Inverse folding.
């Protein structure tokens, strides 16, 4: 069995795509209408994708508090400066639970916690 994608319902497709492309650095793989009020986009250039679904008739999105998506970055310090420069608050961190990893959290436009991780 192979993991294909993780899906997130989003409030605004354009705002979410901007976040995941400009902040996280993912590339848009495909974007299409899935009915009169629904749009779907897939991001990522590897085997595993992020799927964003936007339903214009329902922008009530609840991602909860017990899930986060982690993305590897070259430098936590540089990434913290980058996101702050884009007006995005650091939600928590940085943390370094051992000498091999350092990370911090931000929140995407839909309330999903994003963990930005430096493998040292």
């Amino acid at each position: 069995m192979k993991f294909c994608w993780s899906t997130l319902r989003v409030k605004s497709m354009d705002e979410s795509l901007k976040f995941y492309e400009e902040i996280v650095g993912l590339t848009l793989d495909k974007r299409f209408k899935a009915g009169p009020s629904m749009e779907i986009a897939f991001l990522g250039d590897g085997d595993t994708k992020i799927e964003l679904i936007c339903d214009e008739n329902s922008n009530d999105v609840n991602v909860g508090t017990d899930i986060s998506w982690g993305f590897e970055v070259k430098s936590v310090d540089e990434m913290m400066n980058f996101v702050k420069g884009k007006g995005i608050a650091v939600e928590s961190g940085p943390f370094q639970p051992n000498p091999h990893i350092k990370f911090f959290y931000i929140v995407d436009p839909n309330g999903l916690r994003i963990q930005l991780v430096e493998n040292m």
Summary: The first strand starts at residue 5 and ends at 10. The chain has a mean pLDDT of 93. The CA atoms of residues 10 and 96 lie 31 Å apart. The two ends are 30 Å apart (CA to CA).
